[in-house]
Amino acid sequence: MFSAWSLMKAIRLIAAVIVVIIGVALVLESRKNVDASVQLTHAVRVGTLNGKPLFVPDQNAAAAFARQHDKPPANSPVDQQEVAAIATKKVCDSIKSQIGVAAREATQQEFRISVSHDELARVIVKTQFDATGFEKQRKQWITYNQAAAEVFDHYQDPDKVFETLILLLWAEISPGASREQVHKVWESNLVVWSTPEGRMRLAKMAAVSSGHNWNTEKAKAGMAKSMEHMLLNEKLDNAVIAKLAAEDPQFRAALDEHQRNGGIPLTAGVPITTPGLRYMSNKINEFWKSRYAQQKITLDDPKLADQCQLGSTLRVKVAGSNGI
């Protein structure tokens, strides 16, 4: 078998698996002293996704405008038009992100991707879970809650929060995890935390881990959930590559060439120029677009589908929009 992660480090740089962020704005002055451990995000229902309510975080586009221009928006057509555009982009980014997560979850079920108890146990054993691991797990839940508060309550840039909190956290609790792995978990977490229910569960875990009753068993359970999520993503990426290699001789040949070369160690921002990697990334892109198109989405305002270009970017069809 081939090593999927060495391939994915190269391919993910240009594969069009939707990577979006949820909400960018200023810290509101009135919220500086709010207790982030109990503050929950506000969400707005905009439709349904696969039969479930589709929520997006309540927007503060005026604050985002102020952050970009170092001044609040004026009551002028130009400024107000930009504020409206910022709000629309935030809503669209959130919708696209949730469609991407839903597609991965559906594909995971279709491919019957799972992580056995033994697999999970082997990974946890490798972490040498002791008093140090116990403290790492405590720190993880507290930092996750802080990160969610920064993004959704204090309207901080999710990319900045990822760099300043999440990457530093994972460098300490799981040094072997790649940036791509950590970012994929971060994206999924943002979707979960964008709902009041998701934030409530997170706040509860942070509160429990901060309390006197936090023990080794609870810490191991928390670590198991994080590791299972990462392993599921890794297995899904492996399965997609294996499926494309089995069905497409050209993909298989490009993959074999990649393996013979020992993989191509690329860092973020380095363009992929080899024809083989470009071909494989395009095929992975096409695969995921076909999965996005299978997600059933309705919008309370169908025009939003056209504004978000769901048809052209994700091939998603929404009843009432020009794309159907």
What can you tell me about this protein's structure?
The protein has one domain (4-314). It contains 13 helices and three strands, in the order αββααααααααααβαα. With 324 residues, the chain is mostly helical. 30% of the residues are buried. The model is unreliable at 1-41 and 265-270 (pLDDT under 50). The radius of gyration is 21 Å and the shape is globular. The protein has helices spanning 4-11, 61-69, 77-110, 117-126, 131-153, 158-173, 179-193, 196-210, 216-247, 249-260, 275-292, 303-307, 310-314, and strands at 43-49, 52-57, 297-299. Strands 2-1-3 form a three-stranded antiparallel sheet.
Brief summary:
This protein has about 325 residues and is mostly helical.
List the helices and strands and how they pair.
Elements (H helix, E strand, L loop, with lengths): L3 H8 L31 E7 L2 E6 L3 H9 L7 H34 L6 H10 L4 H23 L4 H16 L5 H15 L2 H15 L5 H32 L1 H12 L14 H18 L4 E3 L3 H5 L2 H5 L10
Antiparallel strand pairs: 1-2, 1-3
Question: Main traits of this protein?
Answer:
3-stranded antiparallel sheet, 13 helices, 324 residues, disordered N terminus
Percent helix among the residues? 55-70%
Structural class: mainly alpha
Any idea how many domains?
1
In angstroms, what separates the terminal alpha carbons? 41 Å
Strand content is under 5%
Largest sheet: 3 strands, antiparallel
Q: What ranges have pLDDT less than 50 throughout 5 or more consecutive residues? A: 1-41, 265-270
Shape label: globular
Total helices: the number is: 13
